Automatic annotation (TrEMBL):
Classification via InterPro entries: LysM, LysM_dom_sf
Name the record gives this protein: LysM domain-containing protein
Domain LysM intervals: 48-95
């Protein structure tokens, strides 16, 4: 009985391999091709200008949209010669906007 089950299993596996290699089981679907848009890269970074109030920090204005290191790096790139930990109240700065 064990030999019969073993032989049937081998025949079934061979049939599956033959069928898969000859005919295939999953049809290839033609997906539409979309062109990559370079408009977002050409527009530059997205930011908003905010006048800082007393007690505000870069993280409190931007929120938790990304990693803190990336937020600080983007803030300092938008505002040359300004450190993220040295913003002053009453001054307007450019803050990065994340989707």
């Amino acid at each position: 009985m064990k030999r019969l089950i073993f032989v049937c299993s081998i025949v079934f596996i061979l049939f599956i391999l033959f069928y898969d290699l000859k005919i295939g089981t999953i049809p290839i679907q033609d997906l539409p091709v979309y062109e990559a848009s370079a408009k977002t890269a050409a527009q530059g970074p997205v930011y908003k200008t905010v006048k800082v109030q007393p007690g505000d920090t870069v993280m409190s204005i931007v929120g938790q949209a990304g990693s803190p290191d990336d937020i600080v790096k983007d803030f300092e790139a938008l505002n040359p010669n300004v450190r993220a930990n040295a913003i002053q109240a009453g001054t307007a700065y450019k803050f990065p906007v994340y989707p």
